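Entry 14. Structure prediction run on the chain below.
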Amino acid sequence: MSTETQRHCCYAECETQRDRPSRRISARSLDRVLTARLGMRNPGVSSLALHVDTPNHLGIINTRMSPKQLVEKCAEFARRVTERRFGSAPSVRVTGHVAACFPYIQAPLEYVLPELLVNAMRASMQCHVGSGSSVPDVVVTIANNDIDFIFRISDRGGGIPHEVMGPAMDYFFTTEAARAEEWRGGDGAQWQATEEEEEEEEAVEAVGGMSDAERHMAESRLQHGPWHGHGVGLALSRAFGAFLGGSLALRSMQGIGTDVYLRLRHIDGRQPSFRL
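Output returned:
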């Protein structure tokens, strides 16, 4: 199952949910289906990648992955997505163990981190645009130890409402329509791109200096509309994190902001990790 096919299945199911709200989806079943795609794809892709001379790579493993550089690349992608929506975007500051470097399978993180960063940026913009104050930075803290490494993504976007915390990472749960309407009704500067302008920017994203995973996301948006707002991103990120032997957790201070913790185990063989 390709990345695009996976998203189309999610979109189709999302539309079904909107049409028939009483129908319930088993998150566990969806997790198995979607992560099985990674499990089946990784060995084949790794075998093919062994025949390509890519610096610091052994198959699909980046032998010298820099979490800081990865965050910065994903933040650039998230910034462009946010600017296309709001006209501007908060800055991203990276702190913590910024010199860390270790082997890891980078491709899944190139999906998960942009999802989390776009969420943080969007919340910050919706909370602060029109408030008369500047939009606070999104802060990504990297922690690295012998067993695992952690990304903490902190925003000051007002936090997740109490009634939303429970279902926030469920498949097809989204507050985007209500939040977007609230933002459009605010006193701040409004920005609305035409469909032609959006397509032009998406076309630029699809061909410009991005990784394969990021280019696939851009091409999918260009051909099939925005992926954002379907209530799939957090659920997929949680599932991918679990597949990689880690976890995704939300910690929210209502009225202030949200911290998202992505914790993943090292694959250096010194500690139990995950199986491909």
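Residues 37 and 219 are 20 Å apart (CA to CA).
Filed with the rest of this week's runs.
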